[in-house]
Amino acid sequence: MKRLRIIDRVFPPQIVYAHCDVPCGIYDPKPTQIAAETVIKMVEKIQAFDNKTATVSDRNTFVRAVWTKEEHARRCKEELLVLWTDFFKPEHLKMFPKLHDTFWKAAKLCSQNKQTVDMKTAKELKRAVDDIAKIFSKAKAVSQK
Amino acid sequence: MELAFCDGDHVLTFNWIKPQAGDVIVFKSCDIWKIKRVIKTSADSVFVAGDNKKLSSREESVERKQVVGKVILKY
Fold first, then answer.
1. ipTM entry
2. Exposed site from A3, A19, B6, B26, fewest CB < 10 Å?
3. What is the pTM of this model?
């Protein structure tokens, strides 16, 4: 068969993989829920900040709370995208016709939580990821049958 | 794709044939080329999976335009 490798002179070979990465198959909506809960906590801390009496240390905590809210909203969006694009398959759309809309709105809420300091928006994000967690459990239960 | 295809194998593909269930195809996905076996086909897509279930557990949906070709020769 090695003789046939003369074909490579005419058609230079490309590397082909059997899978794109470590096929762990591990998906979990929990990181999105933890990130959304963190966003709520940070909004609480930022809103409780008293600018008039704040010490340097308080201001440092305030900046850290803003950074943490930003980071966890980003993390939440990233984890949502992994579930949306990697775990869910076209056949899940039959079970959950609003799947794309649900994920799209949840991802939008992540961005809104970066832009604002609003408890209502933070709680909406938590509700959205909790709904996705329920959808995920149902989809996983079906695929394990 | 073991045992059918192992590291270091060379394959030749042909893209004038529509892949059918059971065929092995090469397709573009996530900026890399992948090799998997076709499980079923639809008008716009083919569904593929690896032979080696321990290492390749996920089924994938591949649009026909992503298909590079059907494997016709291993050498």
1. 0.82
2. A3
3. 0.59
Cβ <8 Å between A20 and B55 = no
Among all residues of chain A, which has the CA nearest to that of B33? A16
Partnered with residue B74 across adjacent β-strands are B11
Tens-place pLDDT, residues A43-76: 999 999 999 999 999 999 999 999 999 999 999 9
Q: For residue A56, how many C-alpha atoms fall within 13 Å in the half-sphere facing its CB? A: 0
Amino acid at B49: A
Tokens at A122, concatenated = 């933070």
Q: Per the CB < 8 Å rule, is A7 touching B10?
A: yes
Query: Packing angle between helix A30-48 and helix A56-82, nearest 10 degrees?
Result: 160
